[in-house]
Amino acid sequence: MFQYFPTNYVWSLSTMIALTHGGNIGEVDAMCAPLVEAARVGDDPGTEAFYAAWKGGADQLAALADDDLAHGHKLSAGDKLARAALYYGIAERMQAHGFEARLALYWRSLDLFEQGRTLSRENCVRVEIPYRDVPLSALYVRAEGLAPGERAPLVVVMNGLDSTKEMLQKSVMGTMFARRGLSALFVDQPGTGEALRLHNLPAVHDTETWASPIVDWLEQHAEVDAARIGALGVSLGGYYCPRAVAFEPRFACGAVWGANHDWRAVQQARLKREGENPVPHYWKHVQWVFGAKDLDDFFAKAEPMHLNGVLDRIRVPFLVTHGENDRQIPLKYAHETFAQLVNAPKKDLFVFTAREGGVEHSSLDNPLNAGNRIADWLAEQLGGSLA
């Protein structure tokens, strides 16, 4: 992986996410260059300096977009606002829970994403899915080439521990499904994005409790073929997705981009400083995500976060992928997930190596080849187009 900060994996990971999710290398370099010394101190110290640098870069882009709008240049403005939203989002994800400006920064990111999406006339629509007392927010991307009244297969994209629907929609997944005749739904499920930040919905281990209402809603969607709904989980979605497919038989297939077979064991390893963390202030972050009152409560909530005794319920095609140099989740968990898919009528394991790239966690070092291979597999299962 390209490590802008050679001694700091966590800061470099956020930088790489920006570069592979719509960011501009010149803008990212301008924001990161003043942070080189601060990054050497460690993951947690200096994150407010990171916030200031990235917010400053996003502020400048937003001001440039205002200049474009003053001249009636809506497409140019939309492009800049989309990148500004991404940079605000990266700055927000690097802060500790309780950081005073965090919520305001998140709202700013949402607002600019929406403006950018509208001005750029993107194939992307914000939707809300009924769930308990508050809706789950999602982004719907329509399959390309649909005729009036035609229904398309669809992939439900499930966030990881610290990703959001906006981040994943701006990744390669924002276009690669639609080009293959598949629609996509990027969801802020409990524990992520709006569900966590605006509605205080923590993550839960029994992911079918929110996955089933999503399928209910899709069955009523005029453009969705309800018999061809697949699921893809990214990062911690490598736990959420298999669990959802196991207990929700209406999914026609499933895939994971990073196998999170035993997340409880990964937490114990991280407590011993084994492996890399995805975000700074890690233990504060996971307590917030799971609504835990302290570390003991978090570990109690993490205890059922494994797939042992679950995967034999899956009776649809399933794909397991993993980077061979994943420094967050050991490769052995991909083999464990694959081995336990004993009743899947078709199962495949792709381990991304140096030959094709994408060897790091969820292929964040190089998502293009890995992402396209996953999209091809899903298109094959759901009847999309590979032409």
UniProtKB/TrEMBL annotation:
InterPro entries for the chain: AB_hydrolase_fold, FrsA_esterase, Peptidase_S9_cat
Keywords: Hydrolase
GO molecular function annotation: serine-type peptidase activity
Pfam families found in the cross-reference section: Peptidase_S9
GO aspect biological process, one term: proteolysis
Keyword Hydrolase applies: yes
Residue intervals of the Peptidase S9 prolyl oligopeptidase catalytic domain: 215-384
Protein name according to UniProt: Alpha/beta hydrolase
Annotated source species: Trinickia terrae
